[in-house]
Amino acid sequence: MDVITTHLNADFDALASMVAAKKLYPEAVIVFPGSQERSVREFIEASHLRLDLKRLKEIDLKEVRRLILVDVRAPERIGPFSGLLQKGDVEIHIYDHHPSTRGNIKGSKEVIEPVGATTTLLTEMLQHKRLKITPEEATLFAMGIYEETGSLTFPTTTPRDLLAAAYLLKKGANLKVVSGFITRELRAEEIELLNELIHSSRDYVIHDIRVKIATASRESYIGDVAYLAHKLRDIEDVDVLFLVMMMEERVHIIARSHVPEVDVSEILGEFGGGGHRAASYAVVRDRTIEEVEDRLLSILKEKIHPVKTARDIMTSPVKCIPWNSTISTAEKTMTRYGVNVLPVLKDDLYRGIITREVVEKAIFHGFARSRVSEFCSTDVSTVTPSTPASRVEALMIEQNQRFMPVIEKGRIVGAITRTDLLRSLYESLLRRERITTGEHLTERPSIGKNLDSLMRSKFPEEIYNLLRLCGEVAEGLGFKAYLVGGSVRDLLRGEANLDIDIVIEGDGIAFAHELGKRLGARVRSHKRFGTAVVITDFLKFDVATARTEYYETPAALPRVEMSSIKRDLYRRDFTINTMAIRLNPQDFGKLIDFFGGQRDIKEKTIRVLHNLSFIEDPTRAFRAIRFSERFGFKLSKHTTNLIRTAVRINLFDKLSGTRLYDELSLLFMETDPIKALKRLAELDLLRFIHPNIRVTKGLERTFRAIEETVSWFKLQFFEEEVNRAHLFLMAMLDELKRQERVRLLQRLFVPPKARDEMLEGVEQARKTLSELKGGIDNKRIYHLLRPLSIQTILFTMAKAEDERQKKAISLYLTTLRNIRPSLTGHDLKEMGYTPGPLFKRILTSLLDARLEGRLKSRDEEIEFVRREFARGATG
């Protein structure tokens, strides 16, 4: 016998999950292990849905061969069925959404995923298997999801819950019925109990977490206390709520958490309870309410740690200056690294700070050559990494301190600025706003939101697991790991980008080698830059140490130094590329957005980070156009003005040809080349490629023809590679005189082989098109095009204006170039011919005869050779 069951005091998620599981196990029977919530009982009595429920007393436990558990894994919550767990001949299948806890039941089949409701998991499975769901069943399943997720408002709600609910609506779920059962009026005794809970409640603040404990007693059992917990939560603005109630000589504890820092399933696990992070339940025997409350408070003080410490909000590492450096050196260092405060060190130990204001005044008064130790402040407050963020906040505000050094064993390990503090306060504000309003803040940037579920849905499983492993390895080494770059940007754009880049706060090379050991992967490291490449069976990705960079002169290559993730992101080109995702286990999936990248993705805007961006790296102007055209984003007005300024002062003349060539190639590979070319012209950037390039109608026509030709070629021969960028460059070369073409390619520092192919290709295309005018036979087409590269042939096809020329080239590519004689040199030897120049004449004659259609088979070729070259045979 197969039995489907759930937890005691079953709610709608439990009932809906059992009914959904029945569709996967049609021969199984549904049995409650004990009581149900009152609203569930009322639904069962009123419903026309055939549930086919069996009473527990009708089940002979000795006959059970397979136990299907839904929405439960705690053995103490399945009533008499817990006796089957030790029987070796009973197969256990589990479907659940609660996190793992000690003592969980283990199954031979487990479907356990972090969604808002178990019904969501089973609905997805029914959808995948295309099993029929009636409107009545869809309504019940919707009740399970809506009740368990607080009508999709609880923090545990995931995008998958919304998609499952949407699917059920399509299947006819009746929201009016759903609302009638999960949003009901309180009965008189429930109102009385709720009033008692409110008046008995006590508030505690434990490490900035607001906890409310409410107590009450009743002689008889009240089944829907969990519903009262939701009601009390709506009335009281708290982070964590505990209802401690004595009923039928047992203490029942109902817990609800609305902050990620408090896992109530872990706390009630100390009482033998279960559930998940946001909602949990336990029953305690032989204890009074007072004893349970005292024990609960002790556990809370032990389990709740500071929400944030100085280590969580500090920037690290910090740029420092030796005590004996001059004031002049301090001024240059501040300008180079864009900082306003420098900690002063002596023998690597912290001695004080010096500010830009002090430095500038010292220089003004003629003390540029004095030591910084003579002017540094030594009495500013400091904190340790474990100092609670609330204490840091109080110190900085009360003492009007803009820069807080974080000191450990006399050494500076980080620093907290006012910006860091404001960001931390804002994150807390948003967290509390989500708690009190249930809002997910999708209409404005949300700092610190978690993208775990989005990563799971967009990335292949092996890459998601790899990112998880990266966080675990970094944690083990005492480092911090981040996913950065285009993969984060495109994740927020709703696309999967598998170009994975990992940044490490710590030693990126040491991390890469440790990760390589765990993966059995190859690692190539570059100590000079603190970077490595990790090569696995399924992915090649980059690892870098968090670094900052500065430019000694405009357009020069940057100098790189080890730094923090914030400084690392600040050195990037545009705000949309400055976001990172934390990978360490405790914060896995948390988004970091220091510079407004989310806002600009939402507003579809390309924006530079600072005013000197194009002066430091002029190639960013070309990159701005590339991203703008690729994503359909606009350049911000300020960004456009900065590009025009860089053009006006001729910064692009200093740009190396190689970097310009690389950016131009990417521009042509990733965008609509015509639009990109026009944007370059609008911003007067074309003249830095060559002063005589103009966007003419002829050039536009050639660009369009190249796109059409390449699209046709890729459809016909998708396995053959063609360099699109080189074709568009050839179109630009074709507009110039020969010597101008040479100068353009020299300016771009194009590799010699590619340069020669493009120069020759432009000339060959003109000559070939001239030869293809008028009628021409297959043999002539073949010998005309055979010496040319595929790139030159495609460019020739794009330039062809006569339809007959296009057809001739198409015929060559699709048919003629694949024609070969059946006979080989070996065959000719077998026929008595001596190897030598004769072989070439014979094979050429066979090919020509094939091209002319005079030979169609091997036998015809043999007869042809014997007839035409009879004298060449021996024996």
- Give the biggest beta sheet: 7 strands, mixed
Q: End-to-end distance, in Å?
A: 86 Å
What spatial order of strands do you see in the largest sheet? 20-21-22-19-18-25-26
Instruction: Give the overall pLDDT as a whole number.
Output: 87
What percent of the residues sit in helical stretches (DSSP H or I)? 40-55%
Count of alpha and pi helical runs: 36
Overall shape: globular
Strand elements, count: 28
In terms of DSSP E residues, the strand content is: 15-25%
Radius of gyration: 36 Å
Which ranges are low-confidence, i.e. pLDDT below 50, for 5 or more consecutive residues? Answer: 433-447
Give me the secondary-structure category.
alpha/beta
What this model shows, in words?
There is one protein chain. 45% of the residues lie in helices and 15% in strands. It is of the alpha/beta class and 875 residues long. The strands form seven sheets. Strands 20-21-22-19-18-25-26 form a seven-stranded mixed sheet. The protein has a six-stranded parallel sheet with strand order 3-2-1-4-5-6. It has a six-stranded mixed sheet with strand order 7-8-9-10-12-11, sandwiched between helices. Strand 25 (580-582) and strand 26 (591-592) form a beta hairpin. Helix 4 (135-148) packs across helix 6. The longest helix is centred in the middle third of the chain and has 20 residues, at 418-437.
